[in-house]
Amino acid sequence: MWIVKIGGSWVKNSKLTILVNLLQKFIDQKIVLVVGGGVFADLVRSVHNSNKMSEYTGHILAMKATEIFAYYLKSLNKKIILTTKTTSFVNKNLNLWLPTERLSHEKKFEKSWESTSDSIATWLYSNTKSDGLIFIKSLNFIERNNSTLSELQKNKILDLNVGKYLNKKKNLKIVGPEIIDLLQEFSDWRLIVSKLEEIII
Question: Over 70: is that where the pLDDT of 173 sits?
Fold first, then answer.
């Protein structure tokens, strides 16, 4: 099983439907999607910054924002299975995890702006029998060499709390819009994964 995190900025990407339909081809791998909050989470942050909203409340609403994106994604691909569970993911389907129900009560998951959807995906990766975690960002990674986690955090590509939720698991990959070309060109999931940039812990 693989956790695939689609960045929130993809919510307005014209190739979002293409990306999800291409991932559908690899359902034999049991793919579980996690999505960012995008413009929906930005709105929550804006309200938080302009009012007396607590960081805890802001975090919960930001998680809800990821679920708005999730429902939108399902409208683009009716085969997606939305789930709040961390077990019993459906085989032969794209599963999309809705995190609020579980993580709002998870004491070890920090409720702050440093725990974004990147941390949510990492938590799910570490708490399931997953082979790896792939972050799909809007930045292009074709010309890059493997990056360290700290470099990606320093450049604000990944959030500051990702490392807290790894629990010694280390198979992290990161890729940009070029993932579409890879999914179109190759039919072997392992080969595709091998071409992605590795995140060095």
Answer: yes
